[in-house]
Description:
The structure holds two protein chains of two kinds. Chain A is mainly alpha-helical. Chain A has helices at residues 18-27, 29-55, 58-75, 90-97, 101-113, 129-135, and strands at residues 83-85, 117-120, 123-126. In chain A, strand 2 and strand 3 (123-126) form a beta hairpin. Chain A starts with 17 loop residues before the first helix and ends in a 15-residue tail after the last helix. Helices cover 20% and strands 38% of the residues of chain B. Chain B has two helices and seven strands, in the order βββββαββα. A five-stranded antiparallel beta sheet of chain B has the order 1-4-5-6-7. Chain B has a two-stranded antiparallel ribbon with strand order 2-3. In chain B, a hairpin with a 2-residue loop joins strand 4 (20-25) and strand 5. Chain B starts with a strand and ends in a 5-residue tail after the last helix.
Amino acid sequence: MDHGVLALTNCRIANVPHATLEKITEEFPHLTRLLWLSTLIDGAIHREWLTTMGRLSATAHMAHLICELYLRLKVIGRAEGDTIQLPITQAELGDTLGLSTVHVNRVLQELRKEGLIRFQGDALTILDWERLKTVGEFTPTYLSLQNEDR
Amino acid sequence: MHEITLQPMSVLADGGSHEGQLILADGQLVAVFSWVTPEETVGGLERAGGWFLEAGFGPCSGLLSTTPPVLETLDDAVTWVRGRLDNGLIPS
Lengths: 150, 92
């Protein structure tokens, strides 16, 4: 592996041997298409991140990240209304976005002051989705969330 | 050895007015440090606030230092600037 993955919270993981994956691709074309789709979405997310990392201001980048996390959690049923759980420190957010903790703090203050988001402990509430999307130049197309027959 | 001089200057950073210092090397502006509160540093590196590299130029530029440092004292800030001036392109 060229990378590692670390969970921020307790989580359940499964180890799927390559042989099993091969069997699935041979016997279940529908699951194969879904695996392929998941790979394509991964690629799309990486492309989106390349541009957000290089071309958005710190504030826009943070807004973009919040929009993406919100939609990704919502689609798997982990959003309660406009609120998601985000058990992540500002230092970790800084590592994610390539920002100093000072900038992370200022950017979050800015988004708060503008009435776009609210933090209560780990709970992040989106107060103005439309403006947050505008600030983050966020278009969710790359997440392929529209319901289609797969 | 570069001649480093400091000049107090209030900085209107995000979140309002900050106490600041211009740092000049041989009469040229190379860095602007502002005093940030513990809240702004989020207790980073367990410090109670510090001098944050608000802007840097040339060897002190953000292009060379993607995570601007928060330093405990102005002496530390000057040492950091000297390090940058001496090291050139090699990241600190």
